[in-house]
Amino acid sequence: MELEKRPKIYPKSVSGKFRTLRWAVTAFLLGVYFLLPWMKIGGRQALLFDIPGRKFYIFNTIFWPQEVYYLAILLVFLVVAFFFFTALAGRLWCGYACPQTVFTDIFMTIERLVEGDRRERMALDKGTLTAGKAVKKTVKHGVWIFFSFATAFTFVAYFIPPAELLGRIVQMRLTESNLFWLGFFTVTTYVDCAFLRELICLVPCPYGRFQSALFDADTLIIGYDKKRGEPRGHIKKDHHDGAGDCVDCTLCVQVCPTGIDIREGLQCECIACAQCIDACNSVMRKVDRPEGLIRYCSLKSISGGETKVLRPRVILYIASLTLLFGVMAYKLSARTPLYLEVIRDRSALFQKTGEGKITNLYTIKAMNMDTRDHRYLVKTDGIDAGMIIGANPIKVKSGEVYQTSLALVWEAGLPDKKVNSFEFVIEDADDPKVSARRGSTFLVPEVAAARGR
């Protein structure tokens, strides 16, 4: 059995309020994407994922790998928000904010600027190879590749400061890893947006497949009003008194980036970009008929019913989002930009001094997760032992992991237990509220413990 080759789609340009809205959203999203790596706060890149240093700079906050639970909460929140938004407003994400849609729209705009609108592009592809055609194709693909590289460079700049990355390119000091990721994202962006386009939405993307589980009769979709539009008829040829408002101009099909006919009802290929609404409204204005033959609506409203916004699934999503937001807000408000780790000396469980005192050795690691330097006091809680440490308070720079060794010496008599639990405490010398604790143990010989009793 031979597979039928999918015909190439040549979306026609369209203007209207939804097209203008899409341009505004695209400009905002691309502006944030391309400019954010260059923004600095306090001399530091505003958003930087430092993988080698295991630090994630997000505006005025530094996150560390041990705080991955924040990412887990955020991901769950985004998934629930995605379900909530889809149940309420359908596939507006796909039509306006999905990276696949945004970047593909830019590629198609470049194509129109170089080769012309739908008819010109179709004629150019069908025509024989000429010098003019070769120039246009070369220019188009050249601009596409340049934009793909700019996209790849910006993405990598979220992991390597852009000025440093640009310097490596100019001085030809790129590492193998730099070359791989720059090449990988350049090629994938180019192939995806230049050739695959709507196939990404139709084949690998699962969203269109499970929308039936998220949609209901009250969900906002793009719908065609069959009661008003049918039966169709060309306004000059076969229009009659009983004909509907649809003049069968097929502009709604010509402007669709996925090549569907919205008049056939809700389809998984529809990404809710509203191009068909602008096209249809422009025709309705020309033939002096009301706009809205194709419009944003729900299945219930288009059949004459009333859309219900608050319904059980929406209320459940709102409750879940409120709970998750509360948990995240509480965790962030209670977050202390300080982490303490304590490691006992494994070479010797305890030591005896010449005076008969018992000593335990420890290594402490203090991680300053704040954006400024701090001085920390090292203390103990729950143990009657003196501390020997090189410097106290310790000075820890922003983002630094400070490591030092210390000894605890049991001074006032001997403990009556072999294993004694206590806590190490480090706190900011200027603000005691900024502190961290870590439990540990103090060990003594069995003989010494027996004497203590």
Element layout with pairings:
Layout: H1 17-35, E1 40-41, E2 44-45, E3 47-50, E4 55-58, E5 61-63, H2 68-89, H3 92-97, H4 99-115, H5 118-126, H6 131-157, H7 162-170, H8 176-196, H9 198-202, H10 207-214, E6 221-224, H11 226-229, H12 251-254, H13 275-286, E7 294-297, H14 299-302, H15 312-333, E8 338-344, E9 351-352, E10 358-368, E11 374-381, E12 385-389, E13 394-396, E14 401-410, E15 419-428, E16 435-443, H16 446-452
Antiparallel strand pairs: 1-2, 3-4, 4-5, 6-7, 8-10, 9-10, 10-14, 11-13, 11-15, 12-14, 15-16
Helix pairs in contact: 2-15, 4-6, 4-8, 6-8
Written description of the protein model:
By secondary structure, the protein is an alpha+beta fold. The protein is built from 16 helices and 16 strands. Strands 8, 9, 10, 12 and 14 form a 5-stranded antiparallel beta sheet that branches. It has a 4-stranded antiparallel beta sheet with strand order 13-11-15-16, with no helix packed on it. The protein has a 3-stranded antiparallel beta sheet with strand order 3-4-5, with no helix packed on it. A hairpin with a 4-residue loop joins β3 (47-50) and β4 (55-58). α6 (131-157) packs across α8. The chain starts with 16 loop residues before the first helix and ends with a helix.
